[in-house]
Amino acid sequence: MIDRKIAIVGGTGKFGQHLAERMDDKNEIFISGKTVEDAEKVAEGRGWNYGPSTEIVEGADLVIVAVPIAVTEDVIHEIGPHVEDDALFCDITSVKQMPVEAMTEYSDEVLGMHPMYAPSNSISGQKVVMCPEKGKKWSMMEEFWEEHGADLHFTEPETHDKAMSLVQGLMHFSELVVADVIRKSELSGDDMEEFSSPVYQLITDLTARMLNQKPGLYGSIQAENPENGTVRDRFIESAEDIRDIIGDEEAFAGKFDELGEEFDLEGAQNRTDLVIEFLSEEVR
User: Fold this and answer.
1) Average pLDDT for the chain
2) Cα–Cα distance for residue pair 195/185, rounded to 1 Å
3) Is 90 exceeded by the pLDDT of residue 276?
4) CB 210 within 8 A of CB 175
5) Phi and psi for 90 in degrees, rounded to 5?
6) What pLDDT is attached to residue 204?
7) Which phi and psi (to 5°) does residue 130 adopt?
8) Percent of the chain whose pLDDT exceeds 70
9) Does residue 129 carry a pLDDT above 60?
10) What pLDDT digit, counting tens, does each position of 132-186 carry?
């Protein structure tokens, strides 16, 4: 992308800054934040422009909404009337149906995006989901991601949200449940560590990694994806079904084999063997 006016609403956030830093070469960057003062602090040292969200999007070639999931729809409707009809209107939240539908009300060029990595990481090799909804200008973002070595995946907003209800909604929910059960146990963290296998340590470390993040993000992921409610209900239903067959050796074996059909068992064994070997070396 060259000679574009790029407006990043929420450009004071970590991901907003991450994108702005990689787009400012030969482009004009405008950012907004919770307040104009916040935007000014971030923009001054980088030579970016700043202002209220409704003002920075006016005349922009590309508008990217990079705000928390819970306020994304409200922000889209706030700035939408000020976005040019032919501007590429994008968002980067982990939910796609809601923001994409909202953006189509204001522009003939709409792209939902979900960069599936932390802004502290390099873009190279990272997965980015693309949901082109209207127009053809989304190709400018395709070009941007490809130039930085991203692994692009194209899909529909509904398909994305269904997949994320498993990849994020189910996994995070199960980690929260596991953490709560551990918290309610009579054993301390030191006790658990003394008896932990590398596999258990890996699982609890992944749970702890999530709990080391901001609760608002994970609360929004659970609340905002319209597919998550169904997945949580299925989680509870499956937990009860499996609890009921504990002790029935034949039923349990049948369920065990049935569940294994959904996974790449050999590949998983090989990958986790490597991780376990590494973790074992770390604690020696």
Assistant:
1) 93
2) 14
3) no
4) yes
5) -130, 160
6) 86
7) -120, 130
8) 98
9) yes
10) 999 999 999 999 999 999 999 999 999 999 999 999 999 999 999 999 998 898 8
What's the CATH number for 159-283? 1.10.3660
Taking alpha carbons only, the member of 271, 217, 237 closest to residue 95 is: 217
Burial of 95 (0-12, 13-18, 19+ CB in 10 A): buried
Q: Is 130 in contact with 153 (CB distance < 8 Å)?
A: yes
Strands of 109-115's sheet in order across:
49-50, 28-32, 5-9, 62-65, 88-91, 109-115, 127-134, 151-154
Beta bridge partners of 90: 64, 111
CA–CA separation, 136 and 118 (whole Å): 28
Please report the pLDDT score of residue 7 as a whole number. Answer: 98
Q: How far is the C-alpha of 39 from the C-alpha of 50, rounded, in Å?
A: 6
Reported pTM = 0.84
Residue type, 2: I
Given the DSSP bridges, would you call strands 151-154 and 127-134 parallel, antiparallel or unpaired? parallel
Name beta bridge partners: 127.
Answer: 151
- Please give the structure tokens belonging to residue 172: 């995070």
CB atoms within 10 A of CB 154: 11
Class of domain 5-155: alpha beta
Backbone phi, psi, residue 115, to 5°: -70, 120
In angstroms, the CA 270 to CA 252 distance is 25
Phi-psi region of 248 (alpha: psi -120 to 50; beta: other; left: phi over 0): beta
Average pLDDT over residues 74-102: 97
Break the chain into its structural domains and give their ranges: 5-155, 159-283
